[in-house]
Amino acid sequence: MPDDDHAARAPRPARPHPDGSGARPGPVDGPGAGDLAGAVDLGIVDSLAQLSFVVQAALGKVAAGHGLSVIQLRLLGVLRDREPGMQELARHLGLDKSSMTGLVDRAERRGLVRRDPSPHDGRAVRVSLTEEGHGLARELTAEADRRILALTGALDDAQRTRLSVLASTLVRGLSTL
Amino acid sequence: MPDDDHAARAPRPARPHPDGSGARPGPVDGPGAGDLAGAVDLGIVDSLAQLSFVVQAALGKVAAGHGLSVIQLRLLGVLRDREPGMQELARHLGLDKSSMTGLVDRAERRGLVRRDPSPHDGRAVRVSLTEEGHGLARELTAEADRRILALTGALDDAQRTRLSVLASTLVRGLSTL
DNA sequence: TTAATTTGGTTCGTGTCACGTACTAAACCG
DNA sequence: CGGTTTAGTACGTGACACGAACCAAATTAA
Question: Which pTM does this prediction carry?
C-alpha cells in the first residue's frame, strides 16, 4: 500500500464527517453565506468540524506509525520545550491529574519520558523527555508537518497562507481570553 | 479559570495545543511565512493542528453535556440522514467493524439507536435512530453550531466566511480524491 | 510551634473505545 | 452442491479518562 490507511489506530475518517452527515440541510449557517459560482461552502460549523476530523486523523496516522496514540503524541509535543509537573501537564492537555499518572507511566515504560523529583518541592515531579523521546518527538514533528501540509494540497500558496492566518487568529483569540 | 471547561468528560483540551507546545521554534513552516505587521501566524501546520484540538474540544463538551463521547455524537450525526448497516457505518466513522458492535450496543442501550434486520439480506442489520435519538441529535446539532460559532468570535463576518470557504475547499479536495 | 488546610501525585474501580482474532450464518459463485 | 466472500458478533487485550479515596509534603492559621 502507498501511504494511506491500514497503519490503523486512532480515529481516521476515510470519509470526513463533521458530527455527522455531510449532506445536511445546514443548521445555523447564518446568512446566505454559500452558493457562489462553483464554490463549495459547507458553512463554518460543518467545515471546521470536518476539518478537525481530517487533521486529527492525520495526526493519528503519524502517531500510529510509531505505535503511539494521539494523546501520547501530544504529550511528547508538550514536553519538547517544557519540563512540567504532573499537574501542569494535566492542564496543558486538558486532562484530570489522575489521568496523567497512567499516561506518563506508559510513556515512561516506553523510555520516552522520565520522572525526576523536583528540587524545590518534595512532593512534585518533573517530567521530561529522554534522549529517545526527543528524537522521536523530532520525527513526529517532521512527519506531522508533511502530513498536514499534504492535506492542504487542494489549496494554492495564497490560500494556504490565508487559511493559516485565519486559523491562527481564531486560536489566538481563544488563548488570549 | 476564565474560559469555562469543567463540564467534563471526553477529551477536551481547555488550553489548545497542536501536538504539543504552542510557543515553539516552528518546525517546517516552509518559507518566511509569518511575521506580518501585527498579524499572528503559527504556520499552516500548527494553526491547523491547534484548531483541530479546539474544535474537537468544543464537540467534546457538547457531547459531554449529554453524557456522550465524541464518537457517539458522530454516530448520531451519521444516522441523522442514513440507515446504514454496521459495515457501512464503520466505513463512515473510519473504524473497524468489530468496533461497531460495542459502539452501537452502547447507543442502543441508551435508547438512541435501533437495530433492525435488513429486509434483503438475512445477515445484515439496519441501524437507525429512535425517536429519542433523533431528538437528541437535533439538540446536539444546535449546540455544536452554537459552540463552534462561538469559537470564531475573534473573526469578523468576512473572515469567518473566508475561513469557511477555505476549510470547505480543503475538505472537499480530499473527499474528491 | 502545632494544628488545619491546601497542593502534588498515586491508587483503585469503572466505563468507553478500538483493535485483532476467531466464529457463525447468510449470500454468492462456479 | 461445495467453496468462498460478506455481515455481524464474541472475546480478550490494552489504552484512556474519570471520580473518589488517600498519602505526604508544603503552606497557612492559630
Answer: 0.80
Nearest-CA neighbor of A12 among A56, A67, A50? A56
Do the Cβ atoms of B78 and A39 come within 8 Å? no
What's the domain count of chain B?
1
Tell which residue, A129, A108, A126, A109, has the closest CA to residue A117. A126
Residue A110 falls within a domain, yes or no? yes
* Among B29, B40, B81, beta carbon nearest to A169: B40
B67 vs B54: CA distance, rounded Å: 20
Instruction: Tell whether A94 is within 8 A of chain B (Cβ).
Output: yes
Give per-residue pLDDT as tens, A18-56: 333 333 333 322 333 334 444 678 788 888 998 999 999
- Answer yes or no: is A19 within a domain: no
A1 found inside a domain: no
Q: Which residue of A has its CA nearest to B18?
A: A74
Question: For B94, which of A13, A163, A174 is closest by C-beta distance?
Answer: A13
CA dist., res. A96 & res. A100, Å (int)? 7
By CB neighbour count within 10 A (0-12 exposed, 13-18 middle, 19+ buried), where does A62 fall?
buried
In a domain? residue A4: no
How many CB atoms are closer than 10 A to CB B122?
7
**What is the domain range of residue B48?**
44-152+159-167
**Would you give the DSSP letter of residue B164?**
H
Output the domain CATH number for residue A64. 1.10.10.10
